[in-house]
Amino acid sequence: MKTIIVSLTLIMFSFAMQEMQAQNDSISDKTERLETLKQKIIEEEKEELKLELERIQMRLDNKSITQEVADDLKKEAAEKRALNIENRIVILENKLALDERNKYNYGTSIELLGNGKIVNINRSYKAEEKDRVYDKRTTSDLVLAAGFNNVISDENSLDNSDFKIGGSRFFEIGWAWKTRVFQNTNWMRLKYGVSFQFNGLKPTDNRYFVENGDLTQLEEFEFNLDKSKFRSDNLVFPLHFEFGPSKKTEGADYLRYSTKGQFKIGVGGYAGFNIGERQKLKYNVDGDKKKDKLKGDYNTNDFVYGLSSYVSLGGTALYVKYDLNPLFKDPNIEMRNISFGLRFDID
To answer: What tens digit of pLDDT does each residue of 247-292 get?
Structure first.
């Protein structure tokens, strides 16, 4: 029993000695840092004093001032630099004390000019347990887009479409990341992410899509349709090169580029997969309202890819996308979705 007590006592004593040593090392490091900064202040002020004295001597050599005036100016310069050293050291000590006191409470960042003047005080009510990233080159935002959708083919142009221009619409929702391409400028960014695209088509002339083997064709419905809508859903991975100016903000411990409210142009495309099709029909039979929701393959292509672009001033952009893949597989007519609308990048 005594052996155990002695062992525990020795262990506790060892831990206590280690803790005291760590505290002494910490105090030593802080003292050394403070002395280094103080010496730097003294060297800076001495250098400034040297330059001032040289300028005064040049004026004396050029006989623009008398020896008496030169002596007075040199005395004033020396006194000023001595006061600068005293004041800057006080500011430095106060700043270090403030940072130490608030290290685990809330951060206070004091920005100083070279002469020790306080130019800005920023408070962040977040614990400083994690280091702030100095240069955050990648940001992310929510992407929303909506507008009109239609198809283009050899037999179907926008001027003579088989689908309602105003009634056929698209919607897109996704998440995008934006990364600065170059180290020291933000004029070009790479924007990439993942999106769900929902492309809707409303056939004209009381028609709907019918799947006949490998063929998917528009046929007239037997009753008067109140609504006929076909929708294909895609999961895609967009990639754009974005160009435009940005606003640079730089502080003592951070560097940021912001494109918020700036003119932007994005050029790129997307690729992904078709994840489903559905058709919705609404009609009346002998006064009874009917609603059919039809799901099927409809011979659509499984792999989707296309081109897209946007032009933005602020948070709202004009947006266009065009599927390079046909909507339906061979031997169907090659119809390709095209969409126009508005895009919102919400950060």
So the answer is: 988 877 788 998 888 999 999 999 999 999 999 999 999 889 999 9
Report CA Rg, the chain: 36
Contact between 245 and 187 under an 8 Å Cβ cutoff? The reply is: yes
Instruction: Read off the tokens for 133.
Output: 């990233």
Q: Identify the H or E element spanning 147.
A: strand 138-152
Cα 217–chain centre separation:
44
d(CA 274, CA 231): 11
- Where does residue 53 rank: exposed (0-12), middle (13-18), buried (19+ CB within 10 A)? middle
Sort strands 336-346 and 316-323 into parallel, antiparallel or unpaired: antiparallel
pTM over 0.85: no
| pLDDT tens digits, one per residue of 185-206 | 999 999 999 999 999 999 999 9
* C-beta separation of 87 from 41 below 8 A: no
CA nearest 148: which of 206, 197, 196, 200?
Answer: 200
Q: 166-184: string of b/e by CB count within 10 Å (b at 16+)?
A: ebbbbbbebebebebeeee
